[in-house]
Design goal:
By secondary structure, the chain is an alpha/beta fold. The protein has 10 helices and 8 strands.
């Protein structure tokens, strides 16, 4: 069984529509895929309508958090998307994305980059606008060679010259809110230092004590030695370990199923969740 628990669609910053994503997941030989768009569940309905037979969809989201000035992402699985308190927090984060992106455009213009808000909005389309859309605008303009090249101190990395902050959850609050909504939490790519500063392992221990369910160990931004170290940490803290592609379509080089999650771990996630349940495909027809 092949299980990928971290993917993005055009509902946030991926390039596949939710319908395309589930069809591509089936074509890639996945049995189970999680849709975890940034701070939103807007892609669920389309993904479910298009879900091919033989593929199971796990609904989720990747929540934007910050701890002691360090940004981090919390994967939330199988929570009730209509639970009022968590929904309100996700809307606060989402609503802050437009002024934040506009602020980055202004900073880039001040640095002499001829980017425009209209260009970024076109790239984002109906998705929740974010740094990857601004980064793609920089690629279009030839300022950087790839989206990942834009996430440096020169440009859009945390604290970078064109960085603008946004509303983000405290991760302890995120764990509390997701649990109250019947969901399960996994710390996404916790040691991805190439993205910027990461929280210390002592913070992961504190999050585990607060109810964190797992950490994403097998990820393209973790070297083999890092994955091994995180597995040891997870064992010490009693945390689940997951593996995922963090697929964004053509916006990143990772492919669906590049890293996967053990079926026993997936089974434990579904056992812990009470807010929602995995959806088995019945042969979707959405174009």
């Amino acid at each position: 069984m092949r299980i990928d628990l971290h993917t993005h669609s055009t509902a946030s910053d991926g390039t596949d529509t939710p319908a395309e994503l589930v069809r591509n997941a089936a074509a890639a030989g996945l049995d189970i895929v999680a849709l975890t768009d940034h701070d939103t569940s807007r892609g669920y309905a389309e993904a479910v309508a298009a879900l091919p037979a033989g593929l199971t969809l796990v609904t989720g989201a990747e929540l934007s958090c910050r701890l002691d000035g360090v940004g981090l992402h919390m994967l939330a699985y199988l929570f009730d998307p209509d639970e009022p308190e968590l929904l309100s927090e996700r809307e606060l984060v989402r609503d802050d994305r437009v002024p934040r992106a506009q602020g980055m455009v202004t900073k880039l213009q001040d640095l002499g980059v001829p980017v425009t808000w209209e260009q970024v909005a076109r790239i984002a389309g109906d998705g929740s606008v974010g740094r990857p859309h601004v980064a793609e605008a920089l690629v279009e303009l030839g300022v950087v060679g790839s989206v990942s090249d834009a996430f440096t101190p020169d440009w859009l990395a945390d604290g970078g010259r064109a960085y603008v902050g946004k509303h983000e959850l405290d991760p302890f609050d995120a764990i509390r809110l997701v649990k109250a909504a019947g969901g399960v939490t996994v710390f996404a790519h916790p040691a991805a230092a190439k993205r910027g500063q990461v929280v210390p392992e002592s913070a992961i221990a504190d999050l585990a004590a607060a109810g964190l369910d797992g950490i994403e160990t097998d990820h393209m931004d973790h070297e083999p030695a890092t994955r091994a170290r995180l597995r040891g940490l997870a064992a010490d803290l009693g945390l689940l370990v997951t593996g995922s592609s963090d697929y964004h379509g053509s916006r990143k080089t990772c492919v669906l199923g590049e890293f996967t999650t053990d079926p026993e771990v997936y089974g434990e996630i579904t056992r812990r969740a009470t807010g929602a349940f995995p959806v088995p495909g019945a042969g979707g027809t959405t174009a």
